[in-house]
Amino acid sequence: MKKAEPASKLSVMLAGHLHPPVGGISAYFAALLSSSLPQQVELHFVQTTSPQRPFHQAGKFTFPNLLTALTDCYQFTQAVFSVRPQIVHIATAFGWSFIKHSFCVLIAKAAGCRVLLHPHCSFAAMYSNHSSIWKFIFRFLIRFPDAVLILSSEWMQLREICPACKTYLLHNAIDLRPYLPLANDRITQPHTSSPTQILFLGHIGKAKGSFVLVETARILKKKGEVFFIHLVGSELTKGEIVYLQKVIEENQMEEVIQIHPPAFEEQKFEFFRQADVFVYPSFHEGIPMAVIEAMACGLPVVATRVGGLPDLIQEDVNGFLVPPGRPDALADKIALLIRDVPLRQKMQRESYRLAQNQFEIEQHVEKLVRIYRTLLQTNQQ
């Protein structure tokens, strides 16, 4: 009797980008490529964003971006028709990125592939905050992928505006292993810093709430709190860091707030190691990888109630959520964590626990492969 032939591996192509430029999509794909996913499926990767393009140009409707998009689509077409994978997993964002990747969706379907579109931004940034013309374009184009991989509960609204769209909810995740020593040290050997070290890590700019943090620092200083805020990252829009530094100096906040360039690897871990509280006052977000990293390090998080952040932060458990653009509310919660060390230590443990239970990359990969297989089987029926 012949032995049954082993099932062939599922053929999957990831379409997105690796850094540079640094961002959520590049961090997500880097995590996937270093996980067990390449062993579980026959994995291919195609770059759909030029590494030469500055991050602050992302998503904008400009002539250089149009030329770059045409090149990206041509390279994508070559890759898809050469490999003809069963599943094409396409990452996208708002604005021009969505238009470009919608063309990639159509190209992949023309090659006979099943397409999973994966937006890496908030639903508000993609749809709600736009004109009726853009909303019409979005509703038209979002029908073409075979399914949409949504990264937060906020994206459940897609089911209301496009009931025919098949959606799967799957949060972002990271490899937790590099962060475990930091979390273990923080939890098993608790310490209190003076001043309390408050960390923001990500893109710096108005949309990320960086200017709100300056006003927050002014309020905290007026309250007599002892603290220091570190803003670590590159600018979201050209010129914003220069202007932010000017605002810091005009408000005489240099002694309590400092801007640092982007940090990677050991330098980034050192910022996490020294921090007591992580803050993320953004005006719109998907599922920011930096917040997951902070949780993996065992840091309590004070963030805004926007996008996917409520999926990460459980109120009064591992942090606090405040309305966007409210430095007074942000200052109140930070002040509470500065003063109440036992509360801060409890939230440290809870952040670490939630990161382990919900945002570990291998758990994510297991769910993702199931989604791939379900999508393929559904479309074969």
From TrEMBL:
Protein name (database record): Glycosyl transferase family 1 domain-containing protein
Gene Ontology molecular function: any one: glycosyltransferase activity
Cross-referenced SUPFAM superfamilies: UDP-Glycosyltransferase/glycogen phosphorylase (SSF53756)
Pfam families: Glycos_transf_1
TM region(s), chain numbering: none
Domain of life: Bacteria
Record-annotated Glycosyl transferase family domain positions: 191-352
